[in-house]
Design a protein that fits this description.
The chain has 698 residues and is mainly β. Helices cover 8% and strands 50% of the residues. It is elongated and about 175 Å long.
Length: 698
Amino acid sequence: MVNLNKGILILLFLAIVLVQGVHAAETYTFVTKWGSEGSGDGQFKIPSGVAVDSSGNVYVADMQNNRIQKFSSDGTFLTKWGSEGYGDGQFGSPKGVAVDSSGNVYVADDFRIQKFSSDGTFLTKFGSRGFGGDGQFIDLYGVAVDSSGNVYGVDLSNSQIQKFSSTGTFLTKWGSYGTSFGQFKWCDGVAVDSSGNVYVSEYINHRIQKFSSTGSYLTQWGGGSPGSGNGQFIRPSAVAVDSSGNVYVADHTNFRIQKFSSTGSYLTQWGDYGTGDGTFLNPSAVAVDSSGNVYVADENSHRIQKFAIQTVPPTTVPPTLQPLSATAISPSAGINSLNISTTVTGTGFKPGAVVKLTLAGQPDIVASGVTLTGDSIITCTFDLTGKEAEQWNVVVTNPDGTSATLPGGFAITGVVPPTLSVTAISPSAGINDQSISATVTGTGFKPGVVVKLTLMGQPDIVASGVTLIGNSTLTCTFDLTGKTTGIWDLAVTNPGDGTTSIRSTAFTLTLLPPINGTIIVSSTPQDALVYLDGSLKGTGSFTLQEVSPGYHSVRVSKIMYNDYVTDVRVMAGSPSYVNAVLTPVSGTSGIIIASSNPAGANVYLDGMDKGISPVTITGVSSGSHTVSFTKTGYSSASRSVTMTAGQTMDITADLTKTGGDWGDLLNTTTLIIVGIVVLIIAIIGVLLRKKKNRWDNY
């Protein structure tokens, strides 16, 4: 019976080895790349989003160029659209892009989502600036579309996911700031699988969370402390899902792409730090086409790379029962401030093997995440933090208690302080009416580091709330309110030694977008009265300033003309136009404008006194009329006119001065008489004086 049991155990062991020997390894190989830093066709300034349609066309959110570019699957430039601004089809630093099953393109644009056709024709938009209300956003970083056309927007600053219909109708939202299930710290990527499950990447929490289509929490992976092991992340920046439900994560500061099952089981990874093919300087976005090809946007090398899957056909490895040995470990050294993933090679490894580093007088360092590939390869992770800097032995122990040792196989070294440098800030732009949270990356950051934005001739903008994440990443807050617009330098200064690293032209500060618009009004005739929403605003042609966005009523009015009334749509920062051509009032009367030369004549209409010229006579009935002019010293004049309904008629009479009439004669006679009287009085005065003189002589 004992021999029988032993035989059964041997058969079971052989079956396990045979099953483990049948495997298919996934690898991804570089296919092509395109892009460089610039503003030309096919060039980028921080590509922050990428998406692929059902035909294999690739759409890229070109953030600092404020545009969307479209390419074929091999990187051939097809078209582009967009410019800086907040009008329809303009962008304020677009960060995410998605495509639905009909080829419509959705763009995460600052505080709104814009929808376009596949050729860039503007279709609609939804969203407004606000602090987490329904349909309100502060900083949209990602967008995704499910198979039913529902749209998901991920708001980094509000720590929320919001869901809309394809036309922009708000449906639901979830999330708040924090580290618990369903909470977020800098949620920056979103994707939806064919079942409607929603995957969200978190830049600060270093994890992926999975939700139902209504926002119910399902599971998560990653999280806790940042790390470089399989399934660990350092600032994941984007997420994508293929048709089989596999999940791809842009592991931003690990410079790699990781692939998982829909439940978070690690499958594979590729990438490293660099600018060569298949390497990255911070992957910022990832997308998968229907053939399984993977497209990666690399924000700091300003390019798109394409990768294809290569599956090694399943092979059967003949079972071997080799003795246990440990022959090598790679890498064979690490710094005593890190977790490090290693590969141990040898023979005779069995499921359940324990791997550890040993040094006399020190506690063993036991590996975690031990994974076997056959019986000759083990991958595992060691936490070297605070461990003794020395040559350590590598020991592998099988479940049956047998052990193999690689003496002095692994060297632990002390931390070498990195040189201070600053490489990037995200976001790299802001508006001068707000405070923003930013992430700064580089090397050699120390506790107490000072971070500021500098611009020649302007006071520095010193960051508050500086928090270090290791020595290569920090988060902080800048108060941009009222600061001068322009392109600012980023300066980081360590305490103590005062060393400073400067990243030139790192941050762009812009104005708050205009919130009101204008209405430019012109009228014919030009002296009409102009009313806005019932209030009189002026006369003639002029511009109505600071009109709030929305629909407004404009009325243009003039006596004897029909009112011109229209509704005008006003948009922030844009002019609207009203060209009012008034039509005369239809009816039975008209207007006569009567003038004379010289002015001041009495004017009569059909014998009725109408005033002194010039005078406007209104309500003149249709038909024939006589207009008469009289003025003292001038001959009278009259005009016969025929009036039609609604007519305005100008009449001018030239009056002739009359000569030699009685009035002139009377004036001449009066002057003669006055002269004679004066002469008589003078003579009488002379005579009286002579008479007086004679009496005086007596």
